Amino acid sequence: MAIDRFGRNIHYLRISLTDHCNLRCVYCMPEDMTFRPSAALMQDEEVLQLTSLFANLGFDKIRLTGGEPTVRANVVDIVRGIAATPGISSVSMTTNGVLLSRLAEPLAQAGLQRVNVSIDTLDPEKFKRLTRWGSLDDVWQGIVAAEAAGLTPIKINAVVVAGYNEADVVDLAALTKAHPWQVRFIEMMPFAGATEIQVRQAVTAGRIKESIERELGVMEIANQGRLDGEALLFRLPDGKGDVGFISSVSHPFCASCTRARLTADGRLRLCLLRENEVDLLTPVREGATLDELRDLILNGIWEKPWGHELAKGVIPMNRVMNEIGG
Ligand code: SAM
Ligand code: SF4
Known about the structure:
The chain is an alpha/beta fold. It has a single domain (about 10-325), classed as TIM Barrel (Alpha-Beta Barrel), CATH 3.20.20.70. It is built from eleven helices and twelve strands. The chain has helices at about 45-55, 75-85, 100-110, 125-130, 135-150, 170-180, 195-200, 205-215, 280-285, 290-300, 320-325; strands at about 10-15, 60-65, 90-95, 115-120, 155-160, 180-185, 220, 230-235, 240-245, 260, 265-270, 275-280. Helix 1 (about 45-55) links the parallel strand 1 and strand 2 (about 60-65). Helix 2 runs parallel beside helix 3, helix 3 runs parallel beside helix 5 and helix 6 crosses helix 8. The longest helix has 13 residues, at about 45-55. The protein starts with 11 loop residues before the first strand and ends with a helix. About 45% of the residues are buried. It binds S-adenosylmethionine (SAM) and iron/sulfur cluster. Iron/sulfur cluster (SF4) binds near residues 23, 24, 25, 29 and 66.
């Protein structure tokens, strides 16, 4: 079991399969982003080797992310390998949904259980502006395909950026009246790359909730007030699904954190919002023994930081968001 010095049992691993992406969301990366060469990323067998090692240490839950995980060559085979790894009971993915209409069914067949799809607005023009060229219709087709393939419950992720989609939160929340989905609003976090927007145009979860309730009525707390992952859930009057708020900046949930992250270049990232990392890929490539790798992971997890220091102006600058994966 992987325990940190605060007694948290860390058993949920988010693996970034690639830093590459087929969109360029304004809050995630600059338009002229350069990506790492494929050789610098974990190769398929390295992803599976590390997954197996983490599973041996008690990790049972895997979320695949990116960049955009669906642009990774062999993503279906990687999912199949992870799902078949002894000890892994949950395999999910966070995706922009652009390629899901084609991939949802094979991914589900390979053992993927759920998807979170990112959509920040239901207005096609604003969607294009936020993602720099994305087509909302492609993503919508992707969600339809994911639902048909049984990748449920569907969760929608929305990042709210002042000056872009602040007014769109009402329509997004209203999706939960028609669909049994979870629509989650994520507070924008600052990293390198798009730092200016991330700092100046962030909107707090509290403000988003107020806008929704002004238009759609007061929401009731759901899930008995317990966090679902990182989201605090509410239900609209007559809602079929839930509206969630992930307030990583204004109300961090560090006490209940069970997560660690593996970056696309094979670094164990101990906290999304802190720079601390342990290089695992170099020792794997240098032939480290299982015991040596196990010690690197367990010692790293032991040192997992408690939380972020954004209030003191400490911003993690060693990574752009798409390299860590959210
Ligand atoms: N490409 C996939 C996607 O967009 O869903 C997976 C990777 S993306 C980095 C994971 C999640 O992080 C997405 O829901 C995205 O909206 C969110 N995200 C990206 N940049 C963010 C930021 N600066 N603050 C908060 N969330 C962010
Ligand atoms: Fe790509 Fe996801 Fe970042 Fe948007 S949020 S640029 S889809 S990695």
